[in-house]
Design brief:
heterodimer; A: mainly alpha; MetI-like fold; 2 domains; B: mainly alpha; two-stranded antiparallel sheet; 13 helices; 2 strands
Chain lengths: 282, 295
């Protein structure tokens, strides 16, 4: 067999594997959309093309659920995710700047300590945090979800520090010559130059906050006006087991991923570079 | 790490102000709470009555608790199947995509999709797909002449949940490996090809050794995720009483702490989970020292 024909046959093999895999990845999403466009009587049909096709489930989602639950769930998810993004970006960026640029005693040790916390499972912090928040009277409010976002984090600090280290040092020295303060160098030089990394961190934080199930489950009441979309959907699923409409549930599931799909398609580059940044340049 | 600007005068204060949130996080979020959990594990406390000293009895009780042992074994099983699954599949994917074929962007997007979307939303549809009488998976099996499988019954639930977890994780792994693969200089392959090395030799002699840093990193991330896996397990295996058909340690911590308010037991379990992670990390870092090739 000649060399080029080996290459062609390998390419065919690669394509077949990739296409088969891609289908496996896509089918759940296609099925979700398909079920959401069916009439309830057809909810278990095996045809992927809905017949008849209807948008009624999306209307029901907003009109039939008691007390506009879906609207409030969506609103809470947005509100919390946006606050968490702000907290993470600000506090991680400040720490990352200090660790990357400022010389002070104990810097490397402190940074190593911070990185080591990546390995502590969050479930370990959950119990003492719950107790503290309980004594502060915060259980049932959204504060236990918001406040921890404002105390930095190893992942975000590491990600931004990696990027800050790639910014040419001459810029700092020049700014310093002109009499710029530390904070000005951070805010006026580093933040504007680090938009890709900041965007990556913002996207990751948004994704994690939006998709979080455990923390809202622990801290928020199972009240459809106060909790988030993830908890709401899990709750509706439980209700459904007593017989109900999967079509409406799938409409809810699909709408709940739409914001992330939009962000992903707009900012795919940041997503992918953010992951690569965290993994390669060590 | 030699480089750095020195804070001048009052800037020293700013420096610590900028670090303040992170310090609070270390105190309350991570290191402080690790110590607090350690302390709590030595008490019995239901959050209502005052805590009573328990010594190591909570730890001893773990080894006599059948439910907990089941959860512990499940966690190990989960990690043992999930971690290699994610690492191998995402490495293969990245190798395929690195062949400079058409549609790389499309494939990358599709494989990454589950990593972006919430486990809760996708678990809802997986639940339908896995359905015994109504699911499309069994429909496909039956049309191929196989008997239907009860995917989410106790015997199979572990496997079904691991499959969904792997499905959700290979997108990120693929990106890590693609970044690692593109960092390998092309000349190495050209030189090897000149010397007559075939594709398999090139893969095992060049690609695999040089991609070990990414394998190390991805194994680390996957292991951390495996020991914390919760969302799909909650969504796919939760039963009527709120327990799970394949409980893992995280599930058990959550149940003990926030359903039964047994803070001491839950803390002891959390500490044991942290120890498990630490042991795994130690092995991994040992492996890194001996087998990972950094250029």
């Amino acid at each position: 067999m000649s060399k080029s024909s080996t290459k062609t046959s390998l390419d065919i093999l690669a394509y077949s594997a990739l296409i088969l895999g891609a289908l496996t990845m896509l089918v759940p999403f296609l099925w979700m959309v398909s079920v959401s466009l069916r009439v309830p009587a057809e909810q278990f049909s095996r045809n992927i093309i809905p017949n008849p096709l209807t948008l009624q489930n999306y209307v029901d989602l907003f009109e039939d659920l008691p007390d506009q639950a879906f609207f409030y769930l969506t609103y809470n998810s947005f509100k919390l995710s946006i606050l968490i993004v702000i907290g993470q970006v600000l506090t991680c960026a400040m720490a990352a700047f200090v660790f990357a640029i400022v010389k002070f005693k104990g810097r490397d040790l402190l940074f190593a300590l911070l990185l080591a916390t990546l390995m502590i499972p969050p479930q370990v912090s959950l119990i003492p945090n719950f107790i503290i928040f309980k004594y502060l009277g915060w259980i049932g409010t959204q504060l236990p979800l918001i406040i921890p976002a404002f105390w930095g984090g190893a992942f975000g600090t590491f990600l931004l520090r990696q990027y800050f280290l790639t910014i040419p040092r001459d810029l700092v020295d020049a700014a310093r010559m002109d009499g710029a303060s530390l904070f000005n160098i951070f805010w006026r030089v580093y933040m504007p130059l680090s938009k890709p990394a900041v965007a990556a961190l913002a996207i990751f934080s948004f994704k994690d906050a939006w998709n979080d199930l455990l923390h809202p489950l622990v801290y928020l009441p199972t009240d459809m006006h106060k909790t988030t979309l993830t908890v709401g959907l899990a709750f509706f699923q439980q209700q459904l087991q007593m017989g109900g409409k999967f079509t409406v549930l799938m409409a809810g599931a699909f709408l709940s991923i739409v914001p992330l799909l939009i962000i992903f398609f707009i900012a795919q580059k940041q997503f992918i570079e953010g992951i690569a940044l965290s993994g390669v340049k060590r | 790490m030699e480089y750095g600007i020195k804070p001048l005068g009052r800037e020293k204060l700013y420096l610590w102000l900028m670090l303040l949130p992170t310090m609070i996080g270390l105190l309350f979020g991570t290191i402080g709470s690790l110590l607090a959990t350690l302390g709590l594990s030595l008490f019995d406390w239901d959050l209502i009555n005052p805590p009573t000293w328990a010594g190591v009895s909570n730890y001893v009780a773990l080894f006599q608790n059948k439910d907990y042992i089941e959860a512990f074994v499940n966690t190990l099983k989960f990690a043992a199947l999930y971690v290699p699954g994610v690492v191998i599949i995402s490495l293969l994917l990245a190798v395929l995509l690195n062949r400079k074929i058409r549609g790389v962007g499309f494939f990358r997007t599709v494989y990454f999709l589950p990593a972006v979307t919430s486990a809760v939303a996708t678990a809802l549809v997986w639940n339908m797909i896995y359905g015994k009488e109504t699911g499309i998976l069994n429909f496909m099996l039956e049309s191929l002449g196989f008997p239907p499988v009860c995917w989410l019954c106790t015997d199979n639930a572990m496997m079904s949940v691991i499959i969904v977890n792997i499905w959700g994780a290979i997108g990120e792994g693929m990106i890590i490996f693609l970044a690692g693969l593109t960092a390998i200089p092309r000349d190495y392959y050209e030189a090897a090809a000149m010397d007559g090395a075939n594709d398999y030799q090139q893969f095992f002699r060049i690609t695999l050794p040089l991609v070990t840093p990414s394998i190390f990193f991805q194994t680390l991330i996957s292991a951390i995720n495996a020991f914390q896996a919760y969302d799909y397990i909650y969504m796919l295996t939760r039963r009527g009483q709120g327990d799970s058909s394949v409980p893992v340690v995280v599930y058990s911590i959550y149940r003990n702490a926030f359903h039964f308010f047994r803070m001491g037991d839950a803390s002891a379990q959390a500490i044991q989970l942290a120890l498990l992670v630490a042991i795994f990390m130690a092995v991994l870092f040992w492996w890194e020292r001996h087998y990972v090739v950094y250029e």
